[in-house]
Amino acid sequence: MTDAWTQRLVEDLQGAAAAGDEAELVRRLLSGHGGASKPFTSAVRSFSRDLRTRLTEAVLARSDDDVLDRAWALSLLTHDLDGVLTADDVEGVVPDLAGQWTSLRSYRLAGCIELARRVGVEVPLSLVEVGRRSVQLEHYDRGPLPAALAGVCAPALNSGEAWSDALLAQLPALRAAWPLLLEHALSATSGKPSARWEEQARKWLVEVADGFRPAVLSWLALVGRPRTVPLQRQQWGYDANEAFDPHNANALRGLVWALSLLPGDAATARALGALVETSLRKVPGLGPRSPKLANAGVYALSRLEGEDALAQLARLAARVTYRTTLKEVHAALDRRAAAMGLSREEVEEIAVPGYGLEVGGRCLLQLGEATAELAVDASDVTLTWRNAAGKVVKSVPGAVRREHPEELKEVKATAKDVAAMLSAQVERLDRQFLARRTWPFAVWRERYLEHPLVATIARRLIWVVDGTPLGWAEGALRGLDEAVAEPGADAEVSLWHPVGRDVSEVLAWREWLVRHEVVQPFKQAHREVYLLTDAERATATYSNRFAAHVVRQHQFNALAAARGWRHRLRLVVDDSFPPASRDLPEWGLRAEFWVEGAGEDYEQDATEAGAHLRLSTDQVRFYPRSAPENTSHGYGGGYESRGGTQREPATALALQEVPALVLSEVLRDVDLFVGVASVGNDPTWQDGGPGGRFRAYWQSYSFGELSTTAATRRDLLARLVPRLAIADRCSVRGRFLVVRGDLRTYKIHLGSGNILMEPDDQYLCIVAKQAPGPGGDGVFLPFEGDGTLDLILSKAALLADDSAITDATITSQISGDR
Length: 818
What we know:
Layout (H helix, E strand, L loop, with lengths): L3 H15 L3 H8 L8 H8 L3 H13 L5 H11 L9 H5 L14 H14 L5 H13 L6 H7 L11 H9 L7 H8 L9 H14 L3 H9 L25 H14 L6 H14 L2 E2 L3 E2 L2 H13 L3 H13 L3 H18 L3 H7 L11 E6 L2 E8 L2 E7 L5 E2 L4 H6 L1 H26 L8 E2 H9 L5 H4 L4 E3 L2 E6 L2 E3 L13 E4 L7 H13 L18 H6 L10 E3 H10 L13 E2 L2 E5 L4 E9 L4 H4 L8 E11 L6 E3 L5 E2 L19 H18 L17 H9 L4 H13 L9 E4 L2 E5 L4 E5 L5 E4 L3 E3 L22 H14 L7 H8 L3
Antiparallel strand pairs: 1-2, 3-4, 4-5, 5-6, 7-11, 8-9, 8-11, 9-10, 12-16, 13-17, 14-15, 15-16, 17-18, 19-20, 20-21, 21-22, 22-23
């Protein structure tokens, strides 16, 4: 059935032909309208041979028109006219699309390819590559383009990616079955392989023999590297150079599926785990590079037997934030857990490998006469080399590089794997405060206190054993009184949290950590506690504690995902969006943080892809987990819940009904979001951003009252300042760390890190990269992860010696010469 618009085009075309208006016919053929419709092409092909020949000559003469339009018109006009066009005629019409990502004109691409083949002109490889990508990204899997591409003789993969270039370069030297296996891999277009697909893959694996695994692993190591042939960014709203070629991604997916048919080993598991993370790396305006490839990696890991694959799944469970892939990871772990008769949480614990480390996080590796020491120190993983004489050397000994290249490669890969797993375990444990997990002491001791890797984290935390808080010091579990504890095997162990603890106990543990020089992997003893305020009791069902802030949306989105929150990027469109929310299944609750897009000026307030650059914050609410979610419009206007069929609209819980631990941890997350993503932290935003609209907010945030996190930072700094090398120049005064330099006195705000200069509170702009490392004097900090504290200390070290500053952008502000 022909739509009215297409029918009108056809009628106009036929009218111009009847009137003999050949100029109008050429104009319509090159206009870009109607070419995808069968009625339009049928109408052109119904013209007489003489008319089409004259039109062909006219199109050839129109050298200023779009080359794709000309090629398509020529293809349409001459599809059955032998001898009208020569190779020389077409040579200058078939375009080279080098640097282009995709095309929305699939029928023109198809016509161009068909034209070149018909007259014997070689189809440009760039045309094939753009066509392949367009089939995938623009959903042209039906129609003339796939058929046209199928008839072109071209390399199986698109060039321009490091891994595909390597494969294509090696392919001629590989076994004869490799091209057929690669063709089979390219057919991996579904979510998971079918039994038939796997059966055929096994046949080709037999043909390529033992060379398959090492070849694929070498190519996987190149995935994600910068493109070897840059692309134009063009109009897609994201940098195509950062994306994965979707045609090549299909081949990768097939190769990964085939890997899962082989016995598992450490190298394969490691490569698949890295592929998942690389594929989920986000590209502004696009999102994750290739979720389908990430899911294929998870699928392959789920199929591989052995502890190595299980360890990678456990690591990904703590690191992945993209919900679709995380769901696949959890499903894979759930299947393993069911097979083992354990919970998923238990599987995640026992899946952490020891990497050959001794308890305490060290191991020695002998490579010839040289020795490598792999050591986990706090949250750092170091690799130290000693030569044959036992002397520490700065780099890998030359003999090791020459005589043990494979062993060296494995040592470096292990060190990288240990670092990734360590980071994942820190994140997993930081989320355990709301998990309500308890362990029998014997189980906990095996999985935490005496685990070669996890012990490096667990021994820096405070635990509650049968109601008694304990920490690890001097080779034993000890209480605040330093007495050694010897719990029974069945004693119940849980993670200590300051909520519900006496202030004296919290302060005592802080002093205990300093006394024993324990650096906690994240804030625990110094963890902020958010208790219900009188204002929140008055509002009853919501907290306005973090309302009226302006935050950078993409940074907020990344932070939310890392803390287990769901947030959908808000676009400047006519659509509804849910709030940022966090499920709390152990408590049967859901937390919501209401945000809206800030600003309606598309040019200044949105990305090229239409996402709000900034958000304004509002209420925090709690609901039963099963309650329908609230939504608000992309242009603002407040939240509402429509409930749904036979469902009542969501009713928020009274904050007094929310468990104190839940309230505190959720508000701590929100404080983190605001504290890190607020535009008030940007030292270059003194003018208030676009049009100065946020000047008042920036000023109030940059130098205003301290949040709970900043207040905790102030209390810590009050104790740290006497230990600083610049202690005689520093003091904590109200909301500021005051630093006395040789030229001026400076006030560093303890919330934003922004600076005022006395005596007239002149603003001093110092961006982070202009300051040295934290403290600069090895000051002991009792926890890791407070980037603002590091920034404040680095700025203090810089300004205490202000007469030595040489950066003109700083000295001009201090002297007042700017």
